[in-house]
What we know:
By secondary structure, the chain is α/β, with parallel strands linked by helices. 28% of the residues lie in helices and 36% in strands. The strands form 2 sheets. Strands 1, 2, 3, 6, 7 and 8 form a 6-stranded mixed β-sheet that branches. α1 packs across α3.
Amino acid sequence: xxxxxxxxxxxxxxxxxxxxxxxxxxxxxxxxxxxxxxxxxxxxxxxxxxxxxxxxxxxxxxxxxxxxxxxxxxxxxxxxxxxxxxxxxxxxxxxxxxxxxxxxxxxxxxxxxxxxxxxxxxxxxxxxxxxxxxxxxxxxxxxxxxxxxxxxxxx
Length: 155
């Protein structure tokens, strides 16, 4: 499972001209699901992402988490995070999870975020969406459960 997490001052997602989700200060999370991902990956990624301390404290150090700043979360599904650009000029998306699995794990991720105290605003799986955000910093991180979980096992 992969996520691109951006610290934002505001973000929104629009479908068919209607804003379906919007937040103020917080995290915009673009979420991609791979074919081997599980609910364990969802939980691990949600806990890791929502626990990040990337807001500045009084000394200007990234030391504060979502809870300390009253932050919100916007999650948008994005299968293109599994785009393979190694060959040719058109990306291949065969590394992304099939739609049924992708949607199920996207929904699970949303429910885990809510369970952890951050009921997310969100887009709609598979929809054509327009995402707007005002990046803060900018601070943008890439989280990949395969890399994160492998490194945590190694100590």
